[in-house]
Amino acid sequence: MSCIDTIQSYAFRSLGFGERMLPRTDFTLCEHFTLIGSGMIWNVYYGVLAILTGFLFANLLAVAKNSNSRWARKPAEWFIFLFRGSPLFIQFFFGYFLFLSLKGVSPMFNPLTSAALGALIVLFLNTSAYSAEIFYGALRSIPKGDVEAADAYGFTGWFRFRRIMFPTMMRLAWPAYTNEAIFLFHATTLVFFSGFPAWRQKGDALYYANYFADKTFNPFVPYPILAFYFILLTLVIIWIFGVINKRLNKHLPQAAVKKLKIRPNLIR
Amino acid sequence: MLPLFPTWRATLRHPSALETTRKRPAIFAYCSDPSVLDGLPWLSCYLTTGKHMAFYASFGTVLLLLAVTAPTALLFGLGGAMAARARFALLRWFGKGYIAIVRGVPDIAFFLFFVIALDQGIEWLRHKVKCPDWTEPVRQGSEFLVCDIAKMPLSSSPQWVHEVYGFWVAVFTFAIVFGAFAANVLFGAMQAVPRPQLETAEAYGMSPRQTFWRVLMPQMWIYALPGLSNLWMVLIKATPLLFLLGVEDIVYWARDLGASKTARFTAYPHGDWRMWYFLALLVFYLLFTRVSEVVLARITKRLSRGQATLDGESQRKNAGSTT
Q1: CB spacing of B144 vs A89 below 8 angstroms
Q2: Each residue of B212-221: pLDDT tens digit?
Q3: CATH number at A3-9+28-256
Q4: Does CATH place domain B53-322 in 2.60.40.740?
């Protein structure tokens, strides 16, 4: 089988298209690259959707945590502590078994036990908590002169937040948020190791890398390929977030702009 | 669903290992016939079965892993950071490479990779030493073959040797990965020590080695502490990954004990309780995190004493005002 054939039969294997049977013997480098690359579709799916939805919820949480009212502040604080204080791995397990019990209550909850939805919900909640902490920190460090000036001009409530505080908060939080996005993508590899079933062997990149490593007893090929894909993905994320960062800092003298610094934050 | 354990390690398991734990006599006398019990007594019997004792002991495994890994990783980190600052270029590249490699790749890929790589590396070395006249290649297609006396641990050794060996491979893997993170933090901390401090040391005629050990080393910890505390939190949260490395840790037992049991196989039949077991693990981790936060805040305060930082300065002023 030539490499083109392999790509044709396995490029969308992780979504269930193409050849049903995974390769069993005589694994070629091409098969490694194609299947692990195919699994990356899921990593991107989880990452992108969790970031987009989590971003909105994180803003809400950050504002709630900064609120003067106990009723808004306490739940937000607890939510953030709950998801930042425990391992994502355990959260996945707990989430999966919780969804499994819910399934017994009503068939309405059936889709939750699939990896595509259930794991996404856990990731969404998790990244919301981490991002909210970042946004909260940024919200607290908005220069007070900015807010005072807004007050002086009669900006109040939602308008003041939308026009003055939110842009500054984003600008301050962005380098840390980039980091969060990178490690969220890395965290997506945990999904299929934590209870969520890979139905018909439709798994993510690490699932296939692990499949190859198990079959060949040779970790030195699949894992470096996985690493290669993730470094590529990381570079793409840094690029996209860099473009946004540039736009957020457009009005500032360029020397004042904080450089993007990638800090390992790691396992969640 | 993925296999519970990487297959290479699952083959080492003795099926009899679980049987022995189950046959322990019950702790409370009234537990001899659980089927007539109800409510609280039933629960007290249920929670003290042999398997549950193994579950509680596995919390010890996690704590032991933390206790061993943290200093080892710190040592690796110190080595990496010192290498990254070395004047000898080859050593410097090694140090920088070690620090850099952890950044772009998902960490669990590292764990999965290093465990197998370490295991095979050790066996390969023993193979080279013990069976020098072995002519066949070690890698044959999808097999990794070494001679019998090079197996690690020997296939004839008892179950506990396998478990201890598995644990140490896990510890070493954690140390390598977290050593790289620690190296990154310590390297930054060494750069953060104010330059004038070092210049003063040089002005007093200290050699580079003396400057490093007498001035840089004692001062860098306060700069490293925020990063190291963060790392400790991360390390706590990484412990469930032991499960992926094939150690019988709390995740393993929570899955095993929580799964629904019928009356045919156990005296304590119940439905699917895995959700509650994992809820217990969640609470355990939250408590552990909270305690760590409090302790680390105290250490920060203690280490700031007498340092050239804002916190140290304010402590000095407060101490001055009270006397």
Answers
A1: no
A2: 888 888 888 8
A3: 1.10.3720.10
A4: no
